[in-house]
Each structure stands twice: as structure tokens, then as C-alpha cells.
Amino acid sequence: MKNNVTNSDVFQLMEQWAPKELAYDWDNVGLQIGSYHNPVTKVLITLDVMENVVDEAIEKGANLIIAHHPFLFKPIKQVNIDTPQGRVIQKLLENHISVYATHTNLDIAPGGVNDMLTDALELEENDMLVETDREKLYKVAVYVPETHIDEVREAFGESGAGHIGNYSHCTFQSKGQGTFKPLEGSQPFLGAKNELELVNEVKMETIVPKAILHKVINAIVAAHPYEEVAYDVFPLENEGKRYGIGRIGSLKNKTDLNSFCEYVKKALDIPALRVTGDLNKKIQKVAVLGGSGEKYIHHAKKKGADVYITGDMTFHMAQEASLMGLGVIDAGHYIEKIMKQFTAAYLKEHLDKENLTILVSESNTDPFQFV
After folding, report:
1. pLDDT tens for residues 100-145?
2. Of 81, 88, 115, 172, which one's alpha carbon is 20 to 30 angstroms from that of 325?
3. How far apart are the first and last CA of the chain?
4. Torsions phi, psi of 264, nearest 5?
């Protein structure tokens, strides 16, 4: 079977998991280099896009790289191929390799990086550390002839609309009559040109999250028999899902900070870490935020954390945490490498296509060595 997967197919799937609108305003997520329309045969998952990763992609024949950290973060004013960044851009373009970044949106998304870390640490009773957003909800109503109720209802459900709690395919239907007059140039499904038509119709409505609004509308339009589909979209004040950065949970059993550090190294596959606080202190409640999370030490303390795991903790912020009685484990930014295996598994589960291979990068992009 001929492969027909494009970058756009993969991007849409990633954004169902981690919608781009969840990302912080300062972030740069989505397509970095390449095209939405390029065909894909091999995808390489990496934490960072560095030259050794690009060389690996070339060697393995990958034509799409999905990275957690954006390759293009700050605006560039020139592409000078004598510089490391310019040389990497040249290699990507010459080898027709696209780059896509899923960064703070994947940190925040349910099942994203911070949930991966809490799962690896086997924390229980997890909650978000800092709420960043609420899901925006809409009501979509469409007017359907009685002959096509089932088709449009199925299009609603299969496109992801109509989820309320633990229930899916939730809709409401009310009967009525619709009128229209086909004009010159129309190709009506029902009725004759220049004659007023009266049709028994059903108004079908359901709730739709903003992230999939356009997908749902496209689905119901495709399933609808009319040449011109009448539908309404209403913003709702209902509270949708909560989204947030970081997680906080509890260990099954209390332990001392020193023993917990050894546990963290093993669970997150890191050779060493930095820690502040009394190593003999008993701990149970743990806050976690992959990447640079030092500005959230007060949130961790307020939520009752005994210890806070994050990366890139600076000297004075570590002192401030100590003064608050909050232990800090600086496990390094590289703990986010956990996203590689999880992202690969997600794509393999949802992209069941022949001739499409999902690879996990074997290149080390951690700039630090421990001596």
C-alpha cells in the first residue's frame, strides 16, 4: 500500500494531544522548518534539534523531526551556513527534513511531559501545580433533513464533539421546518430552482472544545447532504477542562530526602543531581516541573510540597527555597528526554499506516557531563 501520510497529518495528531494554544505566549511551537504538505515515511523524536540529531535523521532516512525544545526560538536575521545554526538549517533543507516543536503545550497537556515525570516517580493523587488556562467551549447547532440525522450525529461524535464528563456522543435534537429557495447557479439536494421549499428538519446541537471546533464543523459539513449547510456556533460560559504547568502529588510511603534523591536518579535515568535541604528530612508530598521551574517555588510551597523537582535552579532561588523550608532537587533540564519514548508510543498508536516508521533519537543532546 502506498504511503500517503503528510506532515500535516502528524501535526494534527500532535495538536489533538497538545493544542498549540496551550503554549505560553513567548514560546515558538509548531512547524519550524519545512512544509505542511511534505510526505512522511520516517519520524524521528528528539528532545533537542542539534547537529548530531540532524546527522542521525539523515543517516536513518527520517524526513520529519519532532522535538520538544524549539530549534528556532529567537528570531533569526540571517542564515549564515558558516555558523552552527546555519549549517544545521542547510542540512535540514538539503535533505528535505521538516522540524516540528511541541514545547510548553506538551508540558501543560494532560499526559504531557509533567504527567510523564509524575508517572515515572509513581506519585499518587496528582494535581496541577499552577493553573494556566481553561478550555474554551462552544455549542454548535446544525439543521439537518430527517433523512440524514444518523450520518450527521455520527460525524459529531467521531470528530470528538459531544463529550460531557465520562459520556461521549452527547447531542440534543428538536424537530422543526426549514425553508429555502434555490437560486440560479445552485445545485440543490432537495427542491427546484426558484421555488420555495419546505423541509422537515432536525436541529442537532452539541458541545465542542475550541481546539477541535474547525475539525467538527468540517466533519458535519462533509456528512451533510445540502450544498449550503446552515449551522450556528455559540460561545459558552461553561467551564471546560483546567490546564496547568507542573504537577504535585504524594509518595505512597514517606522517605528521607537522601533516599528519595537516589530514587529520582534511578526513576528518571540521570547520573547525578543537585539538592538543597536537610537530607534526613522526611518527605511525602512532591512537586514536579520539567525544564526551568524555579519561579514556581512559592506555588510548590503553598501547595504543601516537601520537595520540588525541576531544572535550571539558580543560586539565589535555591537559597530562597531553603529559607522557606522547601527542599529542591535540581535534576537538570535533560530529564525532559522522557518525552521521546512517550511521544513515539503515542504516534505509533494513532498513526497505523504502512511504510511509516517512528524512531526515537539515540543522540545525546545533554550539554553537561559529570566528572
Report:
1. 999 999 999 999 999 999 999 999 999 999 999 899 999 999 999 9
2. 115
3. 51
4. -60, -45
**Full-model pTM:** 0.85
Was 69 annotated as part of a binding site? yes
Domain ranges of the chain: 7-103+337-360, 108-132+243-334, 134-241
CATH number for the segment(s) 108-132+243-334: 3.40.1390.30
68 is in an annotated binding site: yes
Copy the grid coordinates of residue 209.
472544545
Does 299 appear as a known binding residue? no
Nearby residues of 37 by Cβ (< 8 Å), 6 or more positions away: 6, 7, 8
The answer to whether 333 is annotated as binding is: yes
What number does CATH give the domain 7-103+337-360?
3.40.1390.30
Domain 134-241 has CATH 3.40.1370.10: no
Q: How many residues does the chain have?
A: 371
Give the pLDDT confidence of 299-320 residue by residue, as tens digits.
999 999 999 999 999 999 999 9
179: its cell numbers: 425553508
Return all residues near 302 (Cβ < 8 A) that are at least 6 apart. none
